[in-house]
Amino acid sequence: MSEETTEPSSVVAEAAALLVEALSNVDGMRVYTNPGADVQPPGIVLGAPTLTWGTYSRTYSPSGATWPVFLVCKADAKTLPLMWSLLPKITAALDGLEPVAVASATPTLYPVSGAELPAYELTVEVGL
């Protein structure tokens, strides 16, 4: 009995493309897939996912991925209200996808051109 094999990289690439497409629909946001990009805030950076294999499978493809998605903003007096207004738009865009769920959003700093900018790191779970 033979099972069809799926390239793990293609499954991950397809999921990443789905996330980028959804995030690109958030008004006023630039989406970056290069973690070293010179982010122009406000922007969203899609990081490298943690991959999981839930069960033995001959397809060798991961069954899930957890992506770090960074909302990066410039530092000024309006930063927090801006971030708080953008987070629901981002989570709505992602939560509308199947099977995608935003698990958390943690405040952090994101490095851009030698500076650290205020950011939220969203943990985005994706079934593959």
Tell me what the structure shows.
The protein is an alpha+beta fold and 128 residues long. It has a single domain, classed as 2-Layer Sandwich (STM4215-like), CATH 3.30.2000.40. Helix content is 27%, strand content 35%. The protein contains two helices and six strands. Strands 1, 2, 3, 4, 5 and 6 form a six-stranded mixed β-sheet that branches. β5 and β6 form a beta hairpin. The longest helix is centred in the first third of the chain and has 17 residues. It is elongated, with a radius of gyration of 16 Å. The N terminus is likely disordered.
In short:
The chain is an alpha+beta fold and 128 residues long. The chain has one domain (8-127): Myoviridae tail sheath stabiliser (STM4215-like), CATH 3.30.2000.40.
Distance between the termini: 23 Å
**So, CATH architecture?**
2-Layer Sandwich
Helical amount: 25-40%
- The CATH first-level class comes to Alpha Beta
Number of helices: 2
Please state the CA-atom Rg, rounded to the nearest Å: 16 Å
What is the assigned CATH homologous superfamily?
Myoviridae tail sheath stabiliser
What string, H for helix and E for strand, traces the elements in order?
Answer: HEEEEHEE
Structural class: alpha+beta
Beta-strand portion reads: 35-45%
**Structural shape:** elongated
Number of strands: 6
